[in-house]
Amino acid sequence: MAAIAGVDAFDLRFPTSRELDGSDAMNPDPDYSAAYVVLRTDDGPDGHGFAFTIGRGNDVCVAAIRAYAPLVVGLDLDQVIGDLGGFARRLVHDSQLRWLGPETGAVHMAAGAIINAAFDLAARTAGRPLWAYLAELSPEQLVDLVDWRYLTDALTPDEALDLLRRAEPGRAERAALLREHGYPAYATSPGWLGYSDDKMVRLAREAVADGFDLIKLKVGADLADDVRRMRLAREAVGPGVRIAVDANQRWDVDDAVRWMRELAPFDPYWIEEPTAPDDVLGHAAIRRAIAPIRVATGEHMANRVIAKQLLRSGALDVIQLDACRVGGVPENLAILLLAAKYRVPVCPHAGGVGLCELVQHLAMFDYLAVSGSTEGRAVEYVDHLHEHFTDPVRVRGGRYLAPEAPGFSAELRPETFERYGYPHGTAWSPAATGGSTG
Amino acid sequence: MAAIAGVDAFDLRFPTSRELDGSDAMNPDPDYSAAYVVLRTDDGPDGHGFAFTIGRGNDVCVAAIRAYAPLVVGLDLDQVIGDLGGFARRLVHDSQLRWLGPETGAVHMAAGAIINAAFDLAARTAGRPLWAYLAELSPEQLVDLVDWRYLTDALTPDEALDLLRRAEPGRAERAALLREHGYPAYATSPGWLGYSDDKMVRLAREAVADGFDLIKLKVGADLADDVRRMRLAREAVGPGVRIAVDANQRWDVDDAVRWMRELAPFDPYWIEEPTAPDDVLGHAAIRRAIAPIRVATGEHMANRVIAKQLLRSGALDVIQLDACRVGGVPENLAILLLAAKYRVPVCPHAGGVGLCELVQHLAMFDYLAVSGSTEGRAVEYVDHLHEHFTDPVRVRGGRYLAPEAPGFSAELRPETFERYGYPHGTAWSPAATGGSTG
């Protein structure tokens, strides 16, 4: 009888702060990192997953993965794959570990990494890329994946079944379109706050030339700088390209309103993370004040309870789920279902390390089996660190091509472990860091 | 120049699950634990603090304390004590560690433990118990402690100054009353879900005989059991004693309403944690449906952003801050100020290990310097594990007596470290655990 033989956790960090890649108003010097987990089996494929962090604290997520390991090691593989929803709930509901959340912070990110690794394992075992594996489940099987606790005042299992059944017609046609044309992407690479004006303008033009019709700029540190950069970007790309802006939680409610009124002449498409990610009422107030500029948030949304409130209270125009922040595929499925019910488009957060690789699967699955639409939707794209993955994203003409390899595209290359293991990898040696290990 | 010479972290666990002390509908077998931190100085007093957990995952909080240590070791002691608000903000705003929240979960609990230890150190250095140390700060000094980010749409620094100035008259008289009569307490010891009916009834009667006029029962696992236990408790204590009930987040919104309608005939004083702690809209819906039964929550409220929304949206009748869950004294000061503005009484969460010791200081400070009132207020009291502290709480006639020793009452006795250190303490030896270490 095959079992999960081990849960191996790794602290991997990339010294991205040296180039200010990823710099924004709240995160001036991120070192993109993965608290990486392998569900090891004795025969058959392993399962890969990770939590994404930006440096310090990656060790805390690794410790949290190890705290869950005793709940996972020795489980029968067929039972895990046969009841992935039950597997996820056993981790998330563990009463002692739950106390550190509930369902938020390091333990929830760790549970999400392990749960995503189990989905990777299941899809590999089935020989299917995750988006196809999920889209081939029945509505009943999908509903069984979800943890319904705390959801039923907004969405019941029966409503979810109806939603999923309504999305069944046309699925094969959509799958064919997806395989031919891919899924829309948008480009954040031009807009990091640490880049010079010249570099930003050059990268914005390149993104448009590459086929993107939505780009994003980081804002929020200095209003005059933001007005200048937004004007330069608008002049560079012209009126036909959408420009979103992202404050990364930097503002209070009044700051957000004041700032966006100054940026409004340059036609921002959305303002992302204007304030604290769990401030449902704050986002709603900002949205009322700055309409028709869209409000977007979600990358730091801890769980489905925050998503539920953001969606049902009309606090946002766009929801941006993250593949690694919440409790894995089942909780993101709950968020996709809620978004479909409240008719809010999902534009997933990506970038970092591996977030593009993961979240493309969820967006493609949503297109096939939940919302059935790509209208108003796009997955964030940043051209960093893909070379470390065995099945890296392929983006062509501003669209993600559908991955075809089995699994969740989460696996890192063996040589990456040696170079970027923290603190002993060669990238963190005194010679590489100028004497400091960060 | 005196400095913080070290940040020492300890994993301490008490095997409370062996007696079902602390058992409730969500937490059937807690092992009360402390991720304990000592800010070590070379001369002068050390600072003590801790995060409270219920067993597994305590190591994750210890790892998070260690992740913050490099930000703290070597800091000049006078500068830390002279700007405790700035010290707290430097920890909470650390951009890389913040990514694991923001301001929630293991990293926020760890930051809170360290920040509380710094307040312990400051109060010891001043030779004052923390409640008195805080109450002797000026309104301006108190306002400087608070992290105002994300608060100003609900409460501005100027409004807070006004609130604090209005509470200045009568402070000396209130301090004298506090020293003479103590601060109201309520009793949870009778109501753990794992106790037999007989034990619950006996303990409820004892609590009333000891002077408590508010007791609390755990509910939420089985409706018929809860109706029976509530009836027995009401018969035991009579109509004049208030009985609160606590579901520990067990329900969806509709469950909470249905359940409380069944319990209503026995006159429950409040329903505590009816659903997910960050479900602001859910609590508001429950409150509307079950009025006049009060809704209480807050022990798992991650931060001031959730508190702000709960208070301003009318989602609750009672707010229950926790000394260890949020970012230490400064964030709890923000919550006390918000509660005063929205005129919601604060009944702090306690119990566990050391929560009573800490939170009594915050309630007494609130009485002297913020709300100026004890009306409708009481601090939870559970008679467990106080013997481990060097300055344990003293509860007489249903009231907490004001602590007089300098500091935050957070220090554990040296022999406790040896016995309850995890996993090598004697309480966790194979002989003590029957062969398992939990």
TrEMBL record, chains A, B:
Catalytic activity: L-fuconate = 2-dehydro-3-deoxy-L-fuconate + H2O
Domain Mandelate racemase/muconate lactonizing enzyme C-terminal: 197-293
Entry annotated with the keyword Phosphoprotein: no
SMART domains: MR_MLE
Span of the signal peptide: none
GO biological process, one term: carbohydrate catabolic process
Keyword Lyase part of the UniProt annotation: yes
UniProt keyword annotations, A-Z: Lyase, Magnesium, Metal-binding
EC number: 4.2.1.68
Any GO molecular function: magnesium ion binding
EC class: lyase
Essential cofactor(s): Mg(2+)
InterPro entries: Enolase-like_C_sf (IPR036849), Enolase-like_N (IPR029017), Enolase_C-like (IPR029065), L-fuconate_dehydratase (IPR034610), Mandel_Rmase/mucon_lact_enz_CS (IPR018110), Mandelate_racemase_C (IPR013342), Mandelate_racemase_N_dom (IPR013341), RHMD-like (IPR046945)
Name assigned to this protein: L-fuconate dehydratase
Origin species: Allonocardiopsis opalescens
Lineage, uppermost ranks: Bacteria, Bacillati, Actinomycetota, Actinomycetes, Streptosporangiales
